[in-house]
User: Fold this.
Amino acid sequence: MVTLDSVRAVHLTVTEESTAVTHPFLDLAPLSAGRFAAIEDRVARLLGTRQDVVIMQGEALLPLEGAIRAAAGPGTVALNVITGPYGQTFGNWLRDCGATVHDLAVPFHTAVTAEQIRGALAEHPEIDFVSLVHAEAATGNTNPVAEIGEVVRAHGALFYLDAVASVGAEPVLPDAWGVDLCVIGAQKAMGGPAGVSAVSVSERAWARMAANPNAPRRSYLSLLDWKERWIDGGRTALLHAPAQLEMLALEACVERIEAEGLQTVMARHASAAAATRAGVLALGGLEPYVDEAKDAAPVATTLRTPPDVDASALVARALEPDPALPLAAGGGALAGEMIRVNHYGPDATPGAVQGSLAALGAALAEKGLKVDLEAARRAAEEAWDRPTGPGLSPTDTGA
Ligand SMILES: *Cc1c(COP(=O)(O)O)cnc(C)c1O
Assistant:
């Protein structure tokens, strides 16, 4: 016969067995609505924004796609700026939503200028949506968002920005720049998890979504669901069980940035980019892929290999002695000619930069190319202490 006592005995036995194999990632308590809201507020502070910040339970592609599908429809006329592979993806989503899309593509070794944006808006005054990637880790360039924001605001278009590769590496200030939809992810300069992301949403953007009959609703892609069921309800009831592991990691990651200081974290990235660029110029053999230092992203430095040297093979050789170095070949068509030094997050350090330069130098020397390892080391060391570049304008460091 099953008695209450025998049930309790079974429960206790099971509990004892499971506590015998505790694990830091397992058996996590549910994350409360209050904790979730507090993490959102912390991310908002990091961005210096008074807009609503919605944390999304997925990699940054979730809010990137969700925001476009919510804001764009058959009536939308979009200016889609292409400075790398992500811009291409956004254009495809916009077309899929039925929007009329004017692409403005610039060579991947440059940045777009506010003048070019002004020209495109003048040519197509009916444009009411502008999509832009701030920094592209895949191509190593960064765009002057503060200046572009002024032009977009004067025109009145909704401004969508992918700041995944810039947040933590250089200033990202949605309110000061008039960004209506600013998407971030934690996995680059923030040194956090890839499974969680966030978007700040202006009142204008909420209104545009609410008026869009095609905006996802009752869908995992939906931003409006978060507005109606979470924000408007005073953030007391979550839409679904939050991903505790990612949320706790995001909280820890923002806490760590606050402890180090956002300015210090950004300065490390600016130093890493300046040191890598200076080191490569002194090394010889390779060239910075982005022509001008002012257009080079603090998050990652891209390099061009000589015509007869395959970038993938060179990177593979350079990584043999130390596979932990933050080196990668370019993606897709760039794999033959581009090297990426991903000096972000925990790799925005003199050690990672010097190690990468030494490894690339050794691999080039092995191929018979003339390189000066000692000059590269010295140049990188000096540039680390005196960086210049997009992260460092004292007028826009904000926060
Ligand atoms: C890295 C990055 C993302 C996120 O994409 P992953 O390929 O998953 O890392 C989005 N946008 C930009 C501009 C990025 O650099």
Summary: Residues 59-60, 86, 133, 136-138, 162, 164-165, 185, 187-188 surround pyridoxal-5'-phosphate (CB under 6 Å).
